[in-house]
Design brief:
Layout: E1 7-12, H1 20-33, E2 38-43, H2 48-57, E3 62-64, H3 71-82, E4 87-91, H4 111-118, E5 122-127, H5 134-145, E6 151-159, H6 162-175, E7 179-184, E8 193-194, E9 197-198, H7 207-221, H8 224-230, E10 232-233, E11 254-258, H9 268-276, E12 280-284, E13 298-301, H10 310-314, H11 317-328, E14 333-336, H12 338-343, E15 346-348, E16 354-356, E17 363-366, E18 373-381, E19 393-400, E20 403-407, E21 413-417, E22 428-430, E23 433-436, E24 439-443
Helix pairs in contact: 1-2, 1-7, 5-6
Length: 446
Amino acid sequence: MTAAVPRGLIIAAPRSGAGKTTVTLGLLRALARRGTVVQPFKCGPDYIDLAFHTVAARRTSYNLDGWAMSAPQLMGLVSDVAADADVAIVEGVMGLFDGAPQPGRAGRGSAADLASLLGWPVVLVLDVSGQTETAAAVALGCARFRDDVPIAGVILNRVASARHRALIEPAFASIGIGVLGALGRDAQLTLPERHLGLVQAQEITAIETHLDHLAGCISASVDLDAVLACARPMRSAAPVAQASHFGIRPPAQRVALASDAAFSFSYPHLLRHWRAEGADIVPFSPLHDEAPDPAAGAVWLPGGYPELHAGRLASAQVFLDGLRTMAARGIPIHGECGGYMVLGSGLEDAQGEGHAMAGLLALETSFAKRRLHLGYRHATLLADGSLGRKGDRVHGHEFHYATIVSEADDPLIDCRDASGHAIAERGARRGSVTGSFLHVLSGEGA
């Protein structure tokens, strides 16, 4: 029996801040509430939006990153996880055509590249505050910029009044792009933010109430049937036999995974791939002073917000002693970004207060003077470890505000930016312990 070809669409915008996340979350929850099985995805490397998608749709959301993932990986993942869904909805990244300076494995990482690859149309979210007919001109420009990226319709956001909408819509009728709905200005639709983006879904106690409010606004203001009618089947492509293979093998048969508000940035597609490879993933919470499972063959500390919980982590002796005991036994331990900092000797928070960390790497970091590090990364492994074998290439993303005060261990990676230029990020390795600021999306290992 042939599996169903997933139908989908992409929610995009001409720029960041236009309301993509608000509209996407509202659509996901509104459709789920009326019984539609909707599979969410996020274009790009973002972690935080995924958690909101998952709660809204009641179904795990996955990243689709055209810069770090190959076309077979992207199409295979969509085929695997959306086969039983009525519709897939992808939230775009930045502006519709915005991507990395140089193409990656399937493109520049833009929402437009993904739309072209999958054959899914785009629904544009337009912030029309301070505009009338110009909004249609912007939409027309997006529609004509690339022939392979169809604009199926628009959702107007931040409409001031019924009169404001009436001044906007005739221009869309004249260019043949349908208006699928319009949202008014509502401060209650906005989610709280912090330095890496939205506050995490698990930290918002009223998240269900907020999502239901969003869904109510979308249901009242957007033609849901018209949105669903925009969806198209995924374009057929090359064989995707290696669909779920992302080039990063599980570091052990049993992996202890730090998982709580301080360590929440795990990519669902990699965990899914590890499970498909037969790995048993055992979560534990450092914030609740839990040690990693001593029977695990590897420990993985993902990124998150350790800087917001540094004092609590410094006093979590059961957790820290558990890490040290496993390191002494030669168990592979890897930290990504926040996890990397916790494996170091010390972390200085934004107030300038120092906190002792695990001390398994000679790394000291500080948030007292924040400096943004952001962008896609290619890296070649300089030694065997949790990420693969020496010489393997991995592809990922760096996004943090930490400053390295001191480091003294052997480097883990030779790291390049999207344009291929060498950058300072080198990671660290000492015995079986490794770490870097790189959030790995895929690799080219065996």
